[in-house]
Amino acid sequence: QVQLVESGGGLVQAGGSLRLSCAASGRTFGNHAMAWFRQPPGKEREFVGAIKWNGDTTFYASSVKGRFTISRDNDKNTVALQMNSLKPEDTAVYYCASQRREYSYGSSFDEEYDYWGQGTQVTVSS
Questions:
Q1: SS3 for 89?
Q2: Which end of the chain is flanked by fewer CB atoms within 10 Å, N or C?
Q3: Could you tell me which of 11, 91, 2, 101 has the C-alpha nearest to residue 48?
Q4: 3-state SS assignment for residue 75
Q5: Mean pLDDT, the chain, as a whole number?
Q6: CA 106 to CA 5: how far, in whole Å?
Q7: Are 90 and 81 in contact (CB under 8 A)?
Q8: What pLDDT was estimated at residue 27?
Q9: Closest Cα to residue 119, out of 88, 90, 96?
């Protein structure tokens, strides 16, 4: 059993910044890639970005590349999503997820993740 808990969501004006955190427990955090997904209102869940199990590479959806960055601290069992230059279209519930396979790069496919956080709401006003 793995527990993931997101925090840091809230209301922010367009152009502002927000930092989301995800705290993990229940298995060897440092062996698994982590990802962030989001679900905008009225839309399906979509991939935001992922970080390799050891943290040496990241990749992102084109919609957020250059604005969002993912980092992880395997000693503290945390992963973060730094969001800058926020846009109203970034409004969504944001989820962190842990990839089922060990020692992988992560994936944009949500079916490859077996544990998910409860989500945190990010609202960007214009």
A1: helix
A2: N
A3: 91
A4: coil
A5: 96
A6: 19
A7: no
A8: 77
A9: 96
First to last CA, the chain: 40
The 3-state DSSP class for residue 110 equals helix
Alpha carbon separation from 91 to 4, 24, 51, 83 (Å, rounded): 21, 24, 22, 12
* Single-letter residue type at 60: Y
Q: How far apart are CA 92 and CA 83, in angstroms?
A: 13
Question: What pLDDT, on a 0 to 100 scale, did the predictor assign at position 26?
Answer: 80
Question: Letter for the amino acid at 92?
Answer: A
What is the per-residue pLDDT across 107-117, written as a single tens digit (0 to 9) for each?
999 999 999 99
pLDDT digits (tens, 9 = 90+) for 60-101: 999 999 999 999 998 999 999 999 999 999 999 999 999 999
| Percent share of the chain, pLDDT over 90 | 94
Phi then psi dihedrals of residue 85, to 5 deg:
50, 50
